[in-house]
Amino acid sequence: MSARVLVVMGVSGCGKSTVAALLAGREGWAFEEGDSLHPQSNVEKMRAGHPLTDTDREPWLAKVAAWLEGQLDAGRNGVITCSALKRSYRDVLDRRHRGVVFVYLAGDQTTIAARLAVRHGHFMPPGLLQSQFDSLEEPTSDEPVIRVDIGPAPEVIVQHIVDQLDPAPSTDGAPS
Q1: N or C end of the chain: smaller count of CB under 10 Å?
Q2: CATH assignment at residue 144
Q3: In a 3-state reduction of DSSP, which class is residue 103?
Q4: Phi/psi of residue 64, each to 5°?
């Protein structure tokens, strides 16, 4: 079987980083924090309270796609975080139509706003949450997606994701 990369997606504050790091650690897969791939201009724009445009996101999505395609090309499994709010963004990330699975962390705006209110040290201010929900196009059944509710503890969410995955692909070509 070939490698796969899980793109842990959703609006800011849904738990992408926490869940993705736990998932990657549990599976022994490479992990990349997608926010670290943003150009500095995007970080500064969000820090100033301005939502990103599709044009702002283009270079970032290209870097996210390059990372995940690098993993796939090397035959390595991986987990990366990326809001992937719109179908068009997910199409950029899954342009090969193989090897990518989106893990959508779904939650309501009230729950996520409460989480953002107590989060410290992130450049995305809580005031931009509405713009994230305004942009969000939830994944549909024709996309490679696992939908997970953000209500349970992160460890429970990770277990739910693992339970939803097909048998893990081998990275050495041997059956798993």
Answers
A1: C
A2: 3.40.50.300
A3: strand
A4: -60, -45
Instruction: Note whether residue 169 is domain-resident.
Output: no
Instruction: Let me know if residue 172 belongs to a domain.
Output: no
Residue closest to 59 by CA, chosen among 43, 47, 74: 43
**Of residues 32, 36, 38, the one with CA closest to residue 56:** 38
Domain for residue 173, yes or no?
no
What's at 29, amino acid-wise?
W
Structural domain total, the chain: 1
Q: Containing H/E element for 164?
A: helix 154-164
What pTM value is reported for the model? Answer: 0.86
Segment 120-152, tens digit of pLDDT: 555 555 567 788 888 899 999 999 999 999 999
Query: Would residue 154 count as lying in a domain?
Result: yes
Domain range for 143: 5-164
Contact present, 34 and 82 (Cβ < 8 Å): yes
Q: How far apart, in whole angstroms, are the C-alpha atoms of residue 160 and residue 94?
A: 23
Q: Report the chain (176 residues): mean pLDDT per 10 consecutive residues.
A: 91 92 97 93 84 90 97 97 96 95 94 75 62 90 96 96 75 41
